[in-house]
Write a structure and sequence with these properties.
140 residues; mainly alpha; 2 strands; globular
């Protein structure tokens, strides 16, 4: 497979997996849905791909990009966590966590870890669906 085709495949996989998680969040009535999760996953994959292929093989420390994405996504996640009407109520933790893990999935897809990114997405969707069935996601 050509390097260009492989990078496109990695980006498309990250985009699709992020959209899948976002679709679940949107169906659950959360403000951060398909667009947000798709953009986070695709952006993480793009940063990863740029660090792998954009600076020449062996020229850049690819692990620095992962660290930068984690910090950057932390700001996005922090923005969705709000204090509820009551002082002790915190809203948005699950959504912030899904944004964070969606970035990790995008990083994995961008790095060519296809199976891991797909399995991680399935596990995350399972956790989200099970928590909804148990009624634990009604305020998060």
């Amino acid at each position: 497979m050509s390097p260009l085709l492989e990078t496109i495949l990695r980006l498309l996989l990250a985009t699709a997996l992020g959209a899948g998680i976002g679709f679940q969040r949107e169906k659950a009535g959360k403000k951060a849905g398909v667009r947000t999760h798709t953009l986070v996953s695709a952006g993480s994959a793009l940063f990863t791909l740029a660090s792998i292929y954009g600076f020449g093989v062996g020229e850049a420390d690819v692990s620095r990009v992962a660290a930068g994405v984690v910090v950057g996504v932390g700001f996005i996640g922090g923005g969705v966590i709000l204090r509820g009407a009551r002082e002790e109520e915190v809203v948005g933790l699950t959504t912030a966590a899904t944004i964070w893990v969606t970035a990790a999935i995008g990083l994995c897809a961008g790095a060519g870890m296809y199976l891991l990114s797909v399995v991680a997405t399935a596990v995350i969707l399972g956790v989200l669906l099970l928590s909804r069935l148990r009624g634990h996601d009604s305020h998060h």
